[in-house]
Amino acid sequence: MPKGKKKEVSRNLPTMPVSSAMDLDDDPPDFLPEAPVFTKVATDDAAYKTWVCLYPVYFDSKKTVQQGRKVRADIAVPNPLAVDIAESVKTLGVSCVFEPRKTHPTDWKNPGRVRARLFTELKKPSMDDIPTRKELIKRVAELLPEIQKKNPQQFPPPHSPAISNGASKETKTPDAGATSSSSPSSSTSGPTPVGGGSGSSTSSKKKGRKGRK
């Protein structure tokens, strides 16, 4: 085969698209959190790759340590959001960026991540009273309850029964209806005329047999 034809075949080979492992465009979650006021939204990971990452699962009281929680259970909060974490970091005076499309592998239903500038270019703490990542996580956890009171959630948490199962506990009402329908029959039961009771029962049996035929 001539060399020109080989080159032509190689040019027509399809190329596989390059996809990002952390991109949620192909399979977006039920909601994407909005960035808090005066918070920068990160679009380039390379510019903040040395910054500390904070996920909502770190502060979730409904998660175990094996599932990703990094604070003590007594200072953890239910249903933490990345927007509240970003506001807590700003309250501490630490620079941060908000990444709404990033998720933790064990908590993908609660999107959002915060990157905090804990260290300078010289690898020194940007704030003297927060020298480590562990201290930053602890300080953020202590501020989250007040931030949550100030910013009430306008939607159910992603791991609530209303979203995950599509039903709530209030749907278990047929049992109550069944008990209420059976109560009148029990209240009307009592001494009845023998002839009336037997006649009604035999007539119902005959009707039932005719219906079957």
Order of helices and strands: HEEHEEHHHH
* CATH level-3 fold name of the domain at 21-153: Phenylalanyl-tRNA Synthetase, Chain B, domain 1
Structural class: alpha+beta
Strand content: 5-15%
Main sheet makeup: 4 strands, mixed
> So how many helices?
6
Q: Helix share of residues?
A: 25-40%
GO molecular function, one term: 7S RNA binding
Region (Disordered): 1-26, 149-213
Pfam family, one: SRP19
Biased composition (Low complexity): 180-192
Which helices and strands appear, and what pairs or packs with what?
Blueprint: H1 3-11, E1 40-41, E2 52-54, H2 82-91, E3 96-99, E4 113-116, H3 133-150, H4 161-164, H5 174-188, H6 194-212
Parallel strand pairs: 1-3
Antiparallel strand pairs: 2-4, 3-4
Helix pairs in contact: 2-3
Comma- or semicolon-separated keywords:
alpha+beta, 6 helices, 6% strand, Phenylalanyl-tRNA Synthetase, Chain B, domain 1, 213 residues, four-stranded mixed β-sheet
